[in-house]
Specification:
Blueprint: H1 3-24, H2 29-37, E1 48-52, H3 57-67, E2 72-77, H4 80-94, E3 103-107, H5 116-127, E4 132-135, H6 150-177, E5 183-187, H7 200-219, E6 224-230, H8 237-240, H9 263-276, E7 280-283, H10 288-297, H11 299-309, H12 311-318
Parallel strand pairs: 1-2, 1-4, 2-3, 4-5, 5-6, 6-7
């Protein structure tokens, strides 16, 4: 076999293996390898991790995963009752490794920027430091592109972008002033990788988040930056999602037979990403991996496949309902 033929064979095998992994894995290949061969989540034991949006969904499950590994926690969200319930779950799961003072609950509305600094000060005073800030608070959206009121765009960006950036800048300043190699994580979405239909404002916000944090990573190498992009996940996010009219919510529950990743699995992979300081990673059951990889690295193929599959099918995939295509009420 000649050299060129050998190289060609290696390339073919490489792509076959990649396509196979995209099919069977529920996350990107780097994150999968980290979950098998990387640092264990217990590597974060004793560190202080602040999770915003910790009262439900991915944030709540992430807190539970970290608590089982001895991580000290700051839990913030608007719902103080659910935050306290999350704290109690974390203490039970910790099995005595954490006491009540190791899980700090602070109700916080992320849109009240004036309270960010005071809250940050409380965290630092309580724990005498902070190691990781996980920006998880936010809302999704379901709306037709041309029908979205511009005020919805503004409101969504205020929560999903500007509140995140404002709090993160406080953290970066703290890390630099105290000579700490801190870590910032942000919950993005696969919509931050590829434009999601019927979620224009949300997609724009997540793309903006990627821009802000990629710029931070390149500007300040002493700050570790993690961007985690979950695909369709079981949580209550659809009920709270923005629509096209200001002040209204989508208010639709996730269906039990949707094709979605569980919040528990999503949170576990998130914790792996934190422990291994992955730069950009994503998760989601098939065909989310396919869509993410092809959309990111093969845009010409993406355009061809979109023409074949159609936007209607893509909408069902992003909502985890592609197995129910014969039911028009599930579109």
């Amino acid at each position: 076999m000649g050299l060129l033929a050998a190289i060609g064979l290696i390339v073919i095998i490489y792509y076959i293996v990649q396509f196979f992994l995209w099919t069977i894995l529920d996350c990107d290949i780097e994150l999968f390898i980290a979950s098998i061969l990387g640092k264990p989540i217990s590597n974060l034991k004793g560190k202080v991790v602040w999770i915003t949006g910790a009262s439900s969904g991915i944030g709540r499950e992430l807190a539970k995963v970290l608590s089982k590994n001895g991580v000290r926690l700051v839990l913030t969200a608007r719902n103080s009752r659910e935050l306290e319930a999350t704290k109690q779950e974390c203490l039970v799961l910790a099995g005595g490794a954490l006491n009540s003072d190791d899980v700090l609950v602070i109700p916080l509305d992320m849109l009240k920027f004036a309270y960010h600094q005071d809250t940050f000060n409380r965290v630092v005073q309580h724990f005498r430091g902070l190691h990781i800030l996980v920006n998880n608070a936010g809302r999704s959206q379901r709306a037709e592109w041309n029908k979205i009121d511009i005020n919805v765009d503004r409101e969504l960006f205020e929560l999903d972008v500007f509140s995140v950036i404002h709090l993160s800048r406080l953290a970066v300043t703290y890390f630099e002033q105290n000579n700490i190699k801190g870590q910032l994580a942000v919950t993005s979405s696969t919509a931050g990788l590829i434009g999601a239909p019927n979620s224009a404002s949300y997609t724009g916000a997540k793309h903006a988040i990627h821009g802000y944090f990629e710029a931070l990573r390149n500007e300040k190498p002493n700050i570790n930056v993690n961007i985690y992009c979950p695909g369709p996940t079981f949580s209550n996010f659809l009920q709270e999602a923005f629509v096209e009219i200001p002040g209204q919510k989508y208010n639709q529950p996730v269906q039990s037979d949707d094709k979605r990743m569980t919040a528990e699995r999503c949170a576990y992979l998130y914790a792996v990403a934190l422990a291994n300081n992955t730069g950009l990673c994503w998760s989601g059951i098939f065909p989310i991996n396919w869509i993410a990889y092809i959309g990111l690295y093969y845009p010409n193929i993406k355009r061809f496949l979109l023409a074949v599959v159609g936007t209607g099918r893509l909408k069902k995939i992003r909502d985890g309902r592609y197995s129910n295509s014969n039911d028009p009420s599930r579109a």
